[in-house]
Amino acid sequence: MIRFLLLQNRQGKTRLAKYYVPLEDSEKHKVEYEVHRLVVNRDPKFTNFVEFRTHKVIYRRYAGLFFSICVDITDNELAYLECIHLFVEILDHFFSNVCELDLVFNFHKVYLILDEFILAGELQETSKKAIIERMGELEKLE
Amino acid sequence: MALSGMRGLSVFISDVRNCHNKEQERLRVDKELGNIRTRFKNEKGLSPYEKKKYVWKMLYIYMLGYDVDFGHMETVSLISAPKYPEKQVGYIVTSCLLNENNDFLRMVINTVRNDIIGRNETFQCLALTMVGNIGGKEFSESLAPDVQKLLISSSCRPVVRKKAALCLLRLYRKNPDVVNIDGWADRMAQLLDERDLGVLTSVMSLFVSLVSNNAEAYWNCLPKCVRILERLARNQDIPQEYTYYGIPSPWLQVKTMRALQYFPTIEDPNARRALFEVLQRILMGTDVVKNVNKNNASHAVLFEALALVMHLDAEKEMMSQCVALLGKFIAVREPNIRYLGLENMARMLLVTDVQDIIKRHQAQIITSLKDPDISIRRRALDLLYGMCDVTNAKEIVEELLQYLNTAEFAMREELALKAAILAEKFAPDLSWYVDVILQLIDKAGDFVSDDIWYRVVQFVTNNEDLQPYAAAKAREYLDKPALHETMVKVSAYLLGEYGHLLARRPGCSPKELFAIINDKFTTVSTSTVAILLSSYAKILMHNQPPDVGLQQQILTIFKKYESYIDVEIQQRAVEYFELIRKGSALADVLAEMPKFPERESALLKKAEDAEVDTAEQSAIKLRSQQQTSSALVVADHPPANGSASVANQLTLVKMPSQTSSDIQESTPTYEQAPKPPVETPKENGAPFDVESKATSIPEINIESKVEPPSTSHSASPADLLADLLGPLAIEGPPPVEQHPAQVSEANQSSVGDLALATLDDQSNSVQPIVNVEEKFHILCTKDSGVLYEDPHIQIGLKAEWRAHHGRLVLFMGNKNTSPLMSVRALILPPSHFKMELASVPDTIPPRAQVQVPLEVANLRASRDVAVLDFSYTFGTAPVDVKLRLPVVLNKFLQPITLSPEEFFPQWKALTVHSLKVQEVIKGVKPMLLPEMANLFMSLHLAVTPGLDNNPNNLVACATFFSEATRAMLCLIRVETDPQDRTQLRLTVASGDQNLTFELKEFIKEHLIDMPRTRAAPPPTPVQQQLPTPAPPATYNDPGAMLAGLL
């Protein structure tokens, strides 16, 4: 299962953080700091997987943004790697050509989208179309 | 620029972004927090819109890393808002800010429940999402039934149902009781028929979790999973939106295959065939394509398929297909695929016998050990570690040592530990082992834990041949200008004990040894000083003829430390000072350390402790645990390591020192009943307390200090001490270990009739994941190993035998992340045993291990077996098992070798009919004489060649211990017929009628070929590869001996 999902820029600013395991705030800060340090200097030619404590971080870089998912050691790495990409495609579709600023100013929307995509640390919906349609429904309610 | 839709929020975000440094940012944030606080205080005049805006701002500030605890209350209260926009913010921000332990959540539990059971679908979704993301015990207890209803409701839209499925999963993880297994298997089967792939994806996650805890209950769902896979893999009626780069939902495929890995096997031939067709299609049909995403997705599916194939133990052809694929992967440039190739190859080692094929890739794997990417290096290290055996240990360990020079800090400790373990397990010779460990300490002293150097000391102590070599090596290292402190410790210790063996070499006189050690004295910490003091005392003892100058020097040091602030050092100084003045008594008290008893390697334990915890253990891991038990079992290696015959030797629990003496001429020392010096302290003229302390100090104090507070074996200091004092108390190793398992597995199967199947219909829902009967057989001839294991608990056992007494320790390890309750253990002993079981704690905490000692006294000979009635509750399911304890007749036998002069008078003297019994036995399992000798040896009967002139006969002797008989000599003669190996004549003689009878029956049971045991599958593969091993050769193989110690 996904323990947490982080979206950080190169400077280590957190743009999105979602934890599916109960952590104290201080622990969250530590995790965010450590994960950033872990992924930021890795060569693009390296694997997208890094061991993190007793778990594994699957990460992918899009321009200046790092999407990192922490999963169990035995989880299927490539499946989660593509799950990141699917998430990015959904964001891209929703914001039509997403950039970091979209995510900064609309962070609350990003949380909404994420809740339609992942729940309880597991994938909830893998159809981009279904999620975009659902977001449309919700926007009408606001 | 995209804006948030809330002007105040956008402005604030812009402001923060425009801050040039952290300080400015803090000021801006503080100002905003102050503002929010005041606004919240005068709630009047705060519109819902404003409230919503402030709560979003708080979340933003929280993301920046600031504390917003003051706003929790406001946030949570928004959940109760009547309108969607506010309610939504309340739910989302609450699930980001609060965790399950927060008290505020209790306040809204009713609102949440009302939203879940209410009619507003949007509210239902919000509530389910928050509960699913936060979890928590109270939510779990009060909401689970409602969530279940939504999941199975036919009127809810998919958007609600998929959230309900995952919400239930979260609640189930918190508290498995929320899903009542009985009713759920059928519901689950229905749910797996779901047509909406979004719902099905969520449901499959729930299913994986359910099935990982209890596969038995969900057999009926298995064919459904296969059907889903067929549907996906054949690309039938999958809506376009659920294909990802042309691949039908790779995630659902992966999840489904993961679920299937929790079923032990697939029996239904139709399902099996269909599944293999799909798997075959995946294995063959996955090509490398240019598009990265497509490539990743298809390989995600491929790797999951590989794991499933491995789990199912597919036909040979398919397996070799898998190995071939992996071999290809570990050679590709693409880092992710190479990484996964290495990872899966290591997993493959655990489940199948592919060692030899994988070894062909060794060079390739070593290349990956030098990859610039640490992730890949780690995988390579793991794989090398897993594939190492006696044939390639030297090469692999030397690679690791070399790599140690350049490895980064993050990896050094693991590397050092692994190198040490491999060196210990597979050393082709002992001096090589010493070399490796000393090199390790030299190169990476900071990363070499104390366990590692303790271990080398144990080996050297137990192997006389090794002592001068090790001492000389230690002496060499001391010449180096800069030395790691650990090296000082180990060198000082070795030179103190064995320095005198070098006396004739240049630079090795007591005086010179002292001088070179004392050079380091001022630079080391107190724990090392303590060791140095002991070394000095020992050097002084060997200082013959006495060098008065040296004595003065050393006495001065002792004198100086008599008032040292550290109590340990002070005590040593005082005691050594006094001892030295006692003169000749010194030699008695400071005699060489006795040999250590066989014990498990602290290193291996450590390696196992490092195991990770995962929410759902992979099926592969579950299976591998059956082989390499995580609890304690040291002598129980998977046959995957090394060839079968080597693996067999590995299971010998032996002291290297003992093994070096040829069994054929088992020496008279075996005959002596062990004399515990503790009980006869006056014998060597020193008071007991001083004696035991003086000789044991270096071990006790240090080990007890550094032993990590792990849950495993040596958890409590008291036990640790008992363990360490063991060698002192017995002088030599306990009797039974002296001729343990010369067993070939072939012989073990002949123990069959002793152990008639499982005891009763153990109608538990929890089934053991090891073959309990087989484990019992193994333990009949071995003194440590796994007795029982199921998905929740592992019970290991370790035994020591002394005359008619035995001390067993049961290790009960909880494998779960939740406690096992109502733990009970009861012994039902037959009348010939007196047994006392220490009390068992009612609860075994998560991932903890408890040790329960069991004392046994043997009153008289009997073949009846004691039964352990063991029960516990996991969740609500009670589990009750009855396990036979391997306290069998041979445990109280001690082999003894008699000369013809001793044997024949005894043999002739026993003429009374009932004391000497003869029987012609038919239906004997045909075996050659050496095999039979092995069998006897495994039963602790010393086979003595030369007593009987007829080469087809076999004579064996042993001493039997019981309260009734005391030590009683037993003589056995077997006359075989080379023409017909299925029959033989057995004669058993002893001074006790009952013993003679029982022993005869006991041996008979082992000789007769029982059909039942032939049917037992597991031992057979090893059995077949055992072409009458030549025992002396195997015993002289130091690698095997070492491994035996593990």
From TrEMBL, chain A:
One Pfam match: Clat_adaptor_s
Subcellular location field: Cell membrane; Membrane, Coated pit
Keywords: Cell membrane, Coated pit, Endocytosis, Membrane, Protein transport, Transport
GO biological process, one term: clathrin-dependent endocytosis
InterPro entries: AP_complex_ssu, AP_mu_sigma_su, APS2, Longin-like_dom_sf
Membrane topology: Peripheral membrane protein
Cellular component aspect of the GO annotation: AP-2 adaptor complex
Transmembrane stretches, start-end: none
CDD domains: AP2_sigma
Main location: membrane
A molecular function GO annotation: clathrin adaptor activity
Tagged with keyword Plastid: no
UniProt similarity note: Belongs to the adaptor complexes small subunit family.
Protein name as it appears in the record: AP complex subunit sigma
Species assigned in the record: Eragrostis curvula (weeping love grass)
From TrEMBL, chain B:
GO MF annotation terms: clathrin adaptor activity
A biological process term (GO) from this entry: clathrin-dependent endocytosis
Subcellular location: Membrane, Coated pit
Bias (Polar residues): 656-670
Keyword Protein transport: yes
Positions contributing to a 1,2-diacyl-sn-glycero-3-phospho-(1D-myo-inositol-3,4,5-trisphosphate) binding: R7, G8, Y49, K53, Y54, V55, W56, K57
Main location: membrane
Record key words, sorted: Coated pit, Endocytosis, Membrane, Protein transport, Transport
UniProt xrefs under Pfam families: Adaptin_N, Alpha_adaptin_C, Alpha_adaptinC2
SUPFAM superfamilies: ARM repeat, Clathrin adaptor appendage domain, Subdomain of clathrin and coatomer appendage domain
Membrane topology: Peripheral membrane protein
Domain Clathrin adaptor alpha/beta/gamma-adaptin appendage Ig-like subdomain: 777-886
GO cellular component, one term: AP-2 adaptor complex
Region: Disordered, residue numbers: 656-717, 1012-1038
Protein function: Subunit of the adaptor protein complex 2 (AP-2). Adaptor protein complexes function in protein transport via transport vesicles in different membrane traffic pathways. Adaptor protein complexes are vesicle coat components and appear to be involved in cargo selection and vesicle formation. AP-2 is involved in clathrin-dependent endocytosis in which cargo proteins are incorporated into vesicles surrounded by clathrin (clathrin-coated vesicles, CCVs) which are destined for fusion with the early endosome. The complex binds polyphosphoinositides.
Subunit annotation: Adaptor protein complex 2 (AP-2) is a heterotetramer composed of two large adaptins (alpha-type and beta-type subunits), a medium adaptin (mu-type subunit) and a small adaptin (sigma-type subunit).
Similarity annotation: Belongs to the adaptor complexes large subunit family.
Name of the featured protein: AP-2 complex subunit alpha
Source species: Eragrostis curvula (weeping love grass)
